[in-house]
Amino acid sequence: MFARVSRATFQPGTEEENARVWRELHAELRRRPGFQAGYLLHNAATKEALAISIWDREADIASSDAVRQPHVAKLRANIDASIPTSVGISEVRGRVERSLQGQP
After folding, report:
1. Residue 95: Cβ within 10 Å count
2. Which of 36, 44, 68, 75 lies at a 20 to 30 A Cα distance from 24?
3. What sign results for the dihedral spanned by CA atoms 101, 22, 62, 95?
4. Where do the domains of the chain lie?
5. What is the pLDDT of residue 86?
6. Which residue, 59, 48, 34, 35, is CA-closest to 6?
7. Beta strand 48-55 with 86-91: parallel, antiparallel or unpaired?
């Protein structure tokens, strides 16, 4: 499994628009081969956001670039350009989940 992690700080007042664009992107990504999950984390105080998507293979991430680009372009308009952004792809080496069935 692989994770794509993006970090950016957005301009104040753009939170709802960013969440809407992310939901649109997530709806498209979930139809892509190899997509497992997506998470959007947002710190209201700092305006920093982290987007994490989990994929079966690194190649699956690369194949989603064309789908992702129009949404990323919308989000870039809301980024605070004075603070660096980052994007990275890493292999998932561990996973911990709470059992939904009450089992360990």
Report:
1. 7
2. 44
3. negative
4. 2-91
5. 83
6. 48
7. unpaired
pLDDT in the model for residue 80: 86
pLDDT in tens, 18-56: 889 988 998 999 999 999 999 989 898 998 999 999 999
CATH code of the domain occupying 2-91: 3.30.70.100
DSSP string, the chain: -EEEEEEEEBPTT-HHHHHHHHHHHHHHHTTSTTEEEEEEEEETTTTEEEEEEEES-HHHHHHTHHHHHHHHHHHHTTB-TTS--EEEEEE--------TTS--
Q: Does residue 9 contact residue 49 with C-beta atoms inside 8 Å?
A: yes
